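Example (one chain per record):
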Amino acid sequence: MTRARLVSLALLAAGLGIASLPSPSLVPSAAAEGLRPEIGKPLEAAKELVKKGNAKAAMEEINKAAAVGNKTAFENLTIEQMRAYVAQQAGDTAAAIKAYEALIAAGGTEGKAQLSMVQTIALLYLQEKDYPKAISWLLRYRKDGGTDPAMRTQLIQTYFDSKDFAAAAKEQQDQIAGEEKAKEIPPEAQYQLLLNCFLGQNDSASYVAVLEKVVLHYPKPEYWVDLLRRSSTKPGFAASRLGLDLFRLKLATGTMKNGDDYREMTQTALQERFPGEAKDVIDKAFAAGLMGKDEKAVRDNKLRDLVMATVGTDMAAIDVAAATATEAKDGQAMLNVGFDYVGYGQFDKGIKLMEDGIKAGGEKHPDDGKLHLGLAYLRAGQKPKAVQMLKTVEGTDGTSDLARLWLLVNDAKPAS
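Predicted structure:
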């Protein structure tokens, strides 16, 4: 067995991890390697003892070899390799770390062999939950040319476990940026860890920015619920005016919680004079079995009757309302009636009237009109126009946040 072979076996041990190691023939005869008998024989004995599971006795034999004076560099290297191996087999992490660190300090290894030892030391320190030293060796692994992706993931996790959220976030952001540059979708777990990093730092703005990326690739209801809640509770959000708009996003993202949400949305749509939209909402709720049953069945049926009656009255008068708004060049009325048309699926009439309403001007909240026209385009399947319009919404009262969320809804992949 050559010296290179000894090193390769140490590499093999490191590569297989901490808990599961082979039983290699680490030490051949003293004559074959030029080891003196007083060193080679104890190491041979240690090798046989560890095969039998007697790590304690094996370590005693190693210590006999280590006590011999005037050892060569190669003899020291061989002793420490065997010590590291036996210590790992015995579960003596501290001794294994000490032996590996001695091997590296002695300079008896290099290249892949040394890199593997660096990796093993890092993992051993992790096993001991000594995060500062684990981080130090994980960073050395990278500095020395280590490229195992699992080690980078471990570095990020270790920063997080040690509550260095800023360092963990920086590393995780860099990893995600690299994957995005390579046109890869980062794993969901990476986003989750990054979100937790920003939670740990109480960095709400960064948290929301990441969450907006998460819903693009992993549009799960729980992510949308979190994002909608955070967006709608920001300071300055006009909750009373934009309540129906928030319901619209909940409906689009599958985050309406129960029948009460559908009841409230239906009633709000009626109050804001969009009975066609109210009918669509309550029809969905009845079809899903969320309304019209149990002790609330009578109340729900009355609400549905009211919706249907209001729809009939509204449809009979909508054309006159559109003509009146157009003649008066009342931008707000044109937007309202136009969006009412959209609620009935009459997109051509509704969108034309809304476009004219924005041109006419005079709205109390101009960004509301742009937001609703963008939504009308989306409902009509005119996505390029929707994107263009929604990007013009700049209100600081929550309208720009809602517009951005609609853009995310448009871009998000279908939920699995």
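Caption: Residues 239-411 form a domain with the Serine Threonine Protein Phosphatase 5, Tetratricopeptide repeat fold (CATH 1.25.40).
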